[in-house]
Design a protein that fits this description.
The chain is an alpha/beta fold. It has 13 helices and 23 strands. A hairpin with a 5-residue loop joins strand 10 and strand 11. The longest helix has 20 residues. The protein is globular, with a radius of gyration of 24 Å.
């Protein structure tokens, strides 16, 4: 088992892959370092003497600077390192291209919808237009389970607190996200339940759906019925009878759109699970599919690596706006741009936002950036897309589902039961947590520190994605976990 790693030959720090003890000798070719203190798994130690204000290099790039003189073999973390990040910056397009893998002709068994999109689940969704209806749709969900038959995977209600008491762009954002979910290909049928007097009522929402399938998307306005639950169940029975007849067919993986997300990251995230997801992303893109990287605040400090992979200058400018607009969003609320990482991240060995970001963007692989999307905007261009979301797990993953992703890959070092509206594959960064939380974790990338390569685990992940897309339930689905959270973008009346 590997005990430590120097990620890049330019690095002046290494990372402990397992707990290391004071006095232990670590060898990197001709370089030998004796630890002067214990170093926990995922945490960094210095490979040479580092002077105060000198940059700390990890992933071959600065992740901050030393706040004091640090001797070789010392633990370096939040007590002696500080971010280099500043405010809004100017950028220059310096295109970089990496060799990409050859494509394959892989397939999965999914549900081909009338509009040509592919679903990996055949679920019946119940979506409220407004938070006032949350309790109603959950009551309907409970009683509707008796209609579960045929090829229907599940009958699911999603609640949210919005749809009224919103203004301007905030209300517009809610309408766009709700319409995205109503049209999602993982739903074989959808019942939209409105109150009747809300701002985003059914009459207002329908134009956002365009030319929708009126056989499979139905509406109930609660104020128009004496018993809204009975009215919903009557319509749901009809919808379930229609969806139950759908069958899985062999489809090319080019129809897959996969969200890339991390949460509860640790010092191994950028070494194991995130690079695995990045390698998978390159494989899927080579096969004509699409992936979506979100979490803009966790691109800060690593953004130039994404900008220089932009497909063209137009995409580069959109990436610059993605970064700087989000920084302006922070400062408009008088918040510090680099108020990150979280306490859990720090406990796992992540010291600064640059440290976290350079690990986070490993999930994007090396493919060119094909497009940049706003929150609530749907994927238009195959390949690697960037999506404007905050780092919040559920808000970001909901944005990926709204963009059209049929599945989300979620890497984690600390562990989480979380899942969004679409199947959420949980990928562990370390074996210790994977073993402890078997009820949460679908794939253990921690084996990279033991006996497997990134390429091997990436192909294991691709196989798991195909199996999941073809109907195999993930751990969160087996537990019945599913939620949405829409990005709040304005005042509440």
């Amino acid at each position: 088992m590997r005990r430590y790693i120097r990620i890049h030959d330019k690095d002046n720090v290494a990372v402990a892959l397992t707990p290391l003890s004071k006095g232990e000798e670590c060898v990197f070719g001709d370089l030998k370092v004796v630890l002067k203190e214990d170093v926990e798994q995922g945490h960094k130690f210095t490979l040479r003497d580092i002077a105060k204000d000198e940059d700390i290099i990890k992933y071959g790039t600065p992740i901050g600077h030393a706040t004091e003189d640090v001797a070789s073999g010392m633990h370096i973390h939040v007590h002696n390192i500080k971010t280099n990040l500043g405010e809004v910056l100017n950028y220059t397009y310096e295109p970089v291209r990496f060799e990409q893998p050859a494509g394959a002709e892989r397939t999965f068994k999914g549900f081909l919808r009338k509009n040509g999109e592919a679903g990996i689940r055949n679920e019946v969704w119940i979506i409220p237009t407004v938070g006032c209806m949350n309790s109603v749709v959950h009551a309907v969900e409970r009683e509707a389970q008796k209609f579960l038959h045929g090829s229907i995977d599940s009958i699911v209600a999603f609640n949210h607190p919005y749809g009224c008491s919103q203004m301007g762009d905030d209300q517009e954002n809610t309408r766009e996200v709700l319409s995205d979910l109503i049209l999602h290909p993982n739903a074989g049928a959808v019942l939209v339940v409105g109150l009747g007097c809300e701002n985003s009522n059914i009459g207002v929402l329908k134009p956002y759906l365009g030319d929708y399938d009126s056989e499979r998307i139905r509406f109930i306005i609660a104020q128009e019925h004496e018993d809204e639950v009975s009215a919903c169940l009557e319509v749901l029975e009809e919808l379930c009878n229609i969806a139950a007849e759908d069958v899985r067919t062999e489809l090319p993986v080019s129809k897959l759109k996969i969200g890339l997300k991390c949460g509860g990251s640790d010092g191994l995230s950028g070494i194991t699970a995130n690079p695995v997801v990045g390698r998978f992303s390159d494989l899927l893109v080579a096969d004509g599919g699409s992936t979506v990287l979100c979490e803009v605040p966790e691109m800060f400090g690593a953004e130039t690596s994404l900008m220089n992979r932009a497909e063209n200058e137009e995409v580069f400018e959109k990436t610059v706006s993605l970064i700087n607009d989000f920084k302006n969003y922070f400062t408009s609320y008088h918040q510090t741009i680099y108020e990150n990482p979280s306490p859990g991240n720090k406990a796992g060995g992540i010291s600064t936002l640059e440290d976290k970001s350079n690990g986070c963007v490993q999930k994007s692989g090396s493919a060119p950036v094909a497009d940049v999307l706003k929150y609530g905007e749907r994927i238009k261009t195959p390949g690697l897309n960037l999506l404007s979301t905050p780092g919040n797990d559920l808000v970001a993953a909901t944005g990926e589902a709204a963009a059209g992703c049929q599945m989300v890959l979620f890497t984690t070092g600390r562990g989480t039961p979380f899942a969004t509206a679409v199947p959420t594959i949980k990928i562990a960064t370390n074996s210790r947590m994977a073993e402890k939380k078997k009820n949460w974790i679908d794939l253990n990338a921690g084996v990279i520190t033991e006996d497997k390569t990134i390429d091997e685990v990436a192909h294991d992940l691709y196989d798991l994605v195909i199996e999941t897309a073809s109907g195999k339930p993930v751990k969160a689905e087996k537990s019945g976990y599913h939620d949405i959270a829409i990005f709040k973008q304005g005042v509440t009346l």
